UniProtKB/TrEMBL annotation:
<dbReference type="GO" id="GO:0004090">
    <property type="term" value="F:carbonyl reductase (NADPH) activity"/>
</dbReference>
<keyword id="KW-0560">Oxidoreductase</keyword>
<dbReference type="InterPro" id="IPR020904">
    <property type="entry name" value="Sc_DH/Rdtase_CS"/>
</dbReference>
<dbReference type="Pfam" id="PF13561">
    <property type="entry name" value="adh_short_C2"/>
</dbReference>
<comment type="similarity">
    <text>Belongs to the short-chain dehydrogenases/reductases (SDR) family.</text>
</comment>
<dbReference type="InterPro" id="IPR036291">
    <property type="entry name" value="NAD(P)-bd_dom_sf"/>
</dbReference>
<protein>
    <submittedName>
        <fullName>Dehydrogenase/reductase SDR family member 4</fullName>
    </submittedName>
</protein>
<dbReference type="InterPro" id="IPR002347">
    <property type="entry name" value="SDR_fam"/>
</dbReference>
Length: 270
């Protein structure tokens, strides 16, 4: 039995631990100047991590870094188009140069240049979707692993979509690319477990960002989504950020190779 004083000390330690559960960690989040990526970067930094912000446009990077710095968070930023090998290299180098290494990679960037059913996708659009949504996640993983291994452990999270499980009519090729990330999660988790690197994935439902604006701006589509979403609301970027923060923390120390749908019950899995 612990004495009263000892119990209080333990409780305080636990509380402090949860207030800064990612203290000492360094995270890179791609496509993190807006929407879901920005919320993830903010949340990981609030949880104590030092975070490298990035996206294609330098102005967006500067604005995001300024906003989070003003909130007292430890962040830096560098432009990175995830389809560009040199820029990806520079992104990871920034984590090492500015913060001394890498513990967490969140691969969040995606595009959807083709609003068609899957078999109507032009070849160029198919290639672009797979280059950004799948290949860049794979390449970043390959490039990040030596840095994570240097730390003796690490975490990788891919941002997929609920469309990975059930293709959405006008998001055909995009849906297939998101299913591919589920496979990459399992395969990479299997290979990296021995290096104590956990690999997990989050599958957001409809989250209110610019990316999904066409859906939620249309009253008819919005109502249809709400009717099939048991929790009765669209998701917020912070809903995804909370899930990522959990997966990269020690609270999920025994979780790898999994995809966590965060979708208000929309298309919920058995
Ligand atoms: P968003 O609000 O439109 O934000 C997009 C971000 O990506 C911006 O910071 C943008 O900045 C950056 N970006 C775009 N292309 C990039 C590239 N090639 N390389 C690097 N950065 C790039 O999008 P979001 O809704 O947050 O989506 C984020 C992720 O969630 C995506 O993987 C998406 O598939 C997934 N998702 C979203 C929803 C949803 O309903 N919103 C649902 C399921 C899954 P720059 O313009 O400066 O590059």
């Amino acid at each position: 039995m612990f004495s009263h004083g000892r119990r209080l000390t333990l409780q305080a330690a636990r509380h402090m631990g949860s207030a800064a559960k990612l203290q000492g960690k360094v995270a890179v989040v791609t496509a993190s100047t807006d929407g879901i990526g920005f919320a993830i970067a903010r949340r990981l930094a609030q949880d104590g991590a030092k975070v490298v912000i990035s996206s294609r446009k330098e102005d967006n990077v500067n604005k995001a870094v300024e906003t989070l710095t003003k909130e007292g968070l430890t962040v830096t930023g560098v432009p990175c188009h995830v389809g560009d090998a040199d820029q990806r290299k520079n992104l990871l180098k920034t984590a090492v140069d500015k913060f001394g290494g890498l513990d967490i990679l969140v691969s969040n960037a995606a595009v959807n240049p083709s609003a068609t059913q899957v078999l109507d996708t032009p070849e160029k659009a198919w290639d672009k979707i797979f280059e950004i949504n799948v290949k860049s996640a794979f390449m970043l993983t390959q490039e990040a692993v030596p840095l994570l291994e240097k730390r003796g452990q690490g975490n990788i999270v891919y941002i997929s979509s609920i469309a990975a499980y059930q293709a959405m009519p006008l998001l055909g090729a995009y849906s297939v690319s998101k299913t591919a990330l589920l496979g990459l999660t399992r395969a990479a988790a299997l290979q990296l477990a021995a290096s104590k690197i956990r690999v997990n994935c989050v599958a957001p439902g409809i989250i209110k960002t610019k990316f999904s604006q066409l859906l939620w701006e249309d009253d008819g589509v919005n109502d249809a989504i709400l009717q099939t979403t048991p929790l009765g609301r669209l998701g917020a970027p912070e809903d995804i950020a909370g899930a990522v923060s959990f997966l990269v923390s020690d609270d999920a120390a025994y979780v790898t190779g999994e995809t966590l749908p965060v979708a208000g019950g929309y298309f919920c899995k058995l």
